[in-house]
Request: fold
Amino acid sequence: MTDVQDAHPEPVIVAAFGSVGEAEVAQAKLRAFEIESVIVDNDGGGVIPVDGDGAIELEVRAVDGEAAIEILADTQP
Reply:
């Protein structure tokens, strides 16, 4: 790994949701704990999502991954 990769590791997915609204609630919860996150909508190029397919992912910095998962443990559908 290069120094740049060490300084900026890939984000990790800490949760997946069926709707953007659910992801936004989880994101707000992480924000309350001062953990930055990004909502990634993997909509499959506009394909209609199937209920529960978890197309909406919430990503955080790798260093915050474990804490975020713990915080969101009761938020998962």
